[in-house]
Design brief:
Blueprint (H helix, E strand, L loop, with lengths): L20 H4 L3 H4 L22 E7 L17 H4 L4 E3 L6 E3 L3 H5 L4 E7 L6 H10 L15 H10 L11 E4 L18 E3 L18 H11 L1 H6 L10 H17 L1 H7 L6 H7 L3 H14 L4 E5 L20 H25 L6 E7 L2 E2 L4 E4 L13 E4 L2 E2 L3 E7 L6 E3 L1 E2 L6 E3 L4 H11 L8 E3 L5 E3 L15
Helix pairs in contact: 5-14, 12-13
């Protein structure tokens, strides 16, 4: 039986626990002991150099039904096709379901990959497969391999000190289940921002401080370094004090540089832009993602979970959780609006060559509809005991969308069979998915291995090649 999905479960910890710097705040200066913790050293060019390529990954935790969105099967039997009609898109021959009218209108600005597949049907294994390339089909509580985001942060950190005050890798309500830096260590976890950016009270703590009192407090914290200098040097076996020097310098820059505060400040956006994304959690977190990447963040992950999904706060549309069709309809407007706005925005703002946007979950949902009693009433779910339709986990065929990154857009890649059960044309696996992202980031995944806990060189992609149709056009 597959591992039950829980969007609220504890994240997979590294050696020191995966607390973002924002959560840790200034109190971290008082307890900092590991040289790697929160070094914020991911490489970035100075302002006189070309900005590095970046990726925004929009994650659908639980898995989106491909048949009810990007790969409709109107000719399939009724027990497969679902209730939604199909609509044409701006791309000749490509149809979506009626749930995605906004994305249909801008389909020339992205590409749909309809032939993803892998062999890991559980949420933990499927997530680890897509984000780290782990081919183990067993569900594990924490990842064995580092995810592509942490790997990128690690590799770019080797190139030199970062001059941009913003961290290179950030998560805005990021995926927190079954992914993480594994043997790379917590240093390369994301700088984490949580909360609802649509709320007037939303604030990122300890960013862009400006009052004299706060500057004085920071100065007192910084004096910690001088006190530590007086400790026995025997305690500095791993160069921890030198690491603290670097941490203090970069952390103080992060806390005091006005650029950091501005990057998070959605009030600086035009009201029409905020409306275009949607005045809700998903819309505003995708807008924040665009702002942060535009300001120099290189890897940005964000997860579409929570109340906008329906009763169980994710896309895991088993009949016991949701009426799958009511759930899809319930979340479709916010999803369609936010994603289409993000894609349009990166094109309109001149980011479409540098920034790659990828929207995906860990797998699709079963093409054949099943019926089970609901386990509870709520948004998109009937009262407990009511038999309702659902779709279960399906890793043999699913879709994801790609935009920006200098790729040729306005097309679809691959195909599934008449019932949507199997990928049958241009089949792509998780290794191909990862290799494609790495290539955009300037990383040749075929040549790079990183030592694991046992000192063994481990390839960052074991099997897989960049998908030619989703790589930069020369």
């Amino acid at each position: 039986m597959s591992h039950p999905f829980n969007a609220n479960c504890n994240p997979c910890p590294g050696p020191a626990g995966r607390r973002g710097f924002l959560k840790m705040g200034l109190s971290g200066f008082a307890t900092l002991s590991l040289p790697g913790v929160l070094r914020l050293r991911a490489a970035s060019p100075d302002e006189n150099k070309k900005k590095k390529t970046a990726v925004i990954m929009v994650w659908q935790p639980g898995g989106c039904s491909h048949i009810d969105t990007y790969d409709p099967k109107p000719q399939a039997p009724s027990e497969y096709r679902g209730p939604f009609g199909t609509i044409p898109t701006k791309v000749t021959g490509m149809h979506f379901t009626e749930l995605l009218p906004m994305q249909a209108k801008i389909a020339d600005k992205f590409t749909v990959l309809r032939s993803m597949r892998h062999g890991s049907p559980g949420h933990p294994a499927g997530t680890m497969r897509m984000l780290s390339g782990d081919t183990d089909t067993r569900d594990k509580p924490k990842p064995k391999l580092p995810d592509w985001m942490s790997v990128t942060n690690y590799l770019r950190s080797q190139e030199g000190p970062r001059t941009n005050p913003l961290p290179a890798y950030m998560g805005v309500n990021a995926p927190t289940s079954y992914n993480g830096p594994a043997y790379l260590g917590d240093t390369y976890s994301p700088f984490s921002v949580v909360g609802d950016p649509n709320q007037p009270s939303f604030a990122v703590p300890n960013i862009g401080l400006s009052s004299p009192a706060e500057f004085g407090r920071i100065g007192r914290r910084a004096s910690l370094r001088e006190n530590l200098d007086n400790l026995e040097r025997a305690f500095d076996l791993a160069g921890e004090l030198d690491a603290l020097d670097e941490f203090e310098t970069q952390a103080m820059t992060l806390l005091t540089n006005p650029k950091t505060k501005d990057a998070f400040d959605l009030s600086k956006e035009d009201h029409k832009t905020r409306d275009r994304y949607g005045r809700n959690t998903w819309g505003q977190q995708l807008l924040m993602a665009r702002r942060l990447v535009e300001a120099g963040v290189e890897v940005l992950t964000t997860s579409l979970r929570g109340p906008l999904c329906g009763r169980v706060n994710n896309w895991d549309d088993h009949a016991v959780n949701h009426n799958v069709f009511e759930a899809l309809r319930f979340r479709s407007q916010a999803y369609d609006q936010a994603v289409s706005a993000l894609i349009e925005d990166i094109h309109q703002r001149g980011l479409s060559d540098r920034v790659l946007v990828v929207v995906t979950g860990e797998f699709g949902r079963t093409p054949k509809i099943n019926y089970q009693p609901s386990t509870g009433a709520g948004n998109a779910s009937a009262p407990a005991g009511t038999k309702q339709p659902g779709r279960d986990h399906w890793a043999r065929a699913f879709s994801n969308i790609w935009a920006g990154g200098g790729i040729e857009t306005g097309r679809f890649i691959g195909a599934t069979d008449k019932k949507g059960e199997d990928s049958i044309e241009r089949i792509c696996g998780s290794g191909d998915f990862l290799a494609t992202i790495y290539q955009h980031l300037g990383i040749d995944s075929s040549k790079i291995a990183i030592k694991d806990f046992n000192g063994r060189p481990t390839p960052i992609v074991d099997k897989g090649k960049p998908i030619p149709e989703l790589t930069r056009q020369s």
